[in-house]
Amino acid sequence: MGHFTNTAQAEAWNGYEGAQWARSQERWDAVNDGFNQPLLNAAAISETDTVLDIGCGAGRTTRLAARRAGLGRALGLDLSAPMLDKARESALHEGVENVSFVQGDAQVHPLEAEGFDAVISRYGMTFFTDPVAAFANFHRALRPGGRLAFICAAEAEANEWLEALTSLRDILPLGGFGKPGGPGGPGMFSLTDPDHIRGLLTAGGFTDVDTHRVEVQGKWGADAADAAAFLLDSGPGRHLLDQVTPPEQDEAGQALTAALKRHEANGAVWLRSSSWLVTAVRGGAAPR
Ligand SMILES: C[S@@+](CC[C@H](N)C(=O)[O-])C[C@H]1O[C@@H](n2cnc3c(N)ncnc32)[C@H](O)[C@@H]1O
Q1: How many distinct structural domains can be found in the chain?
Q2: What are phi and psi of 279, to 5 degrees?
């Protein structure tokens, strides 16, 4: 296990949040798999590449990258022990052999200098307390000309799952949850502003920074009741539910089910997620 500088995130992703993601990984992949092709295409992974997947979680994108780099390899790096256990189990089950996983804090984890052709991430780049240090670490790990490509959430209000949860404001103590916060501390919506992203990556040593919006319809459940139960069991939903009484919890479940009805189609609930596909290149010398 590596050294953690981000204790709060390490605790969350090794606690309820990590266990929930590991337990529900197939569901999260059904929600987020639409981002895989745009991400992997943007990273332009070749057959012989060595790829690093940051905040790889249960390793879906790490395994897909490893398949593209059939003569190379992919390494997944994550804080979360339960999610990495799930990643290793899935790689074994799927027979993907050119993949490995390591536990560590990506901001400070010692990565082989110029050891990678591409660094990728699906929703794993927004939780850093020191994003410039993290991006500089990835810059050092890339070979000259190496590619960075990652998916991060765009503005909160462009995401239908969040819109559905915030419709419960009369029942759950939402506080600032889901409000457009702009760049701030670590969290899912810390990289919603393209200028902020460009500034952080440039400070980390990257060039040719580009942000491109990608919108995906994710599958959140078999029907509205199923999707509502999942949303309320997920990290933010569970946190809100834990603050109210059992009758209010039931009321929240019913109201969310009603709100999700209009998203039912073809035997599933589909909700739009809007994200940035960020790309950059390791240009000149690594920053000191
Ligand atoms: C939203 S999940 C995404 C997981 C996975 N990439 C996926 O798409 O299913 C975010 C992941 O980032 C990881 N993470 C957060 N901060 C990290 C850090 N400083 N270093 C490494 N991983 C981190 C969490 O443990 C978690 O697995």
Answers
A1: 1
A2: -130, 150
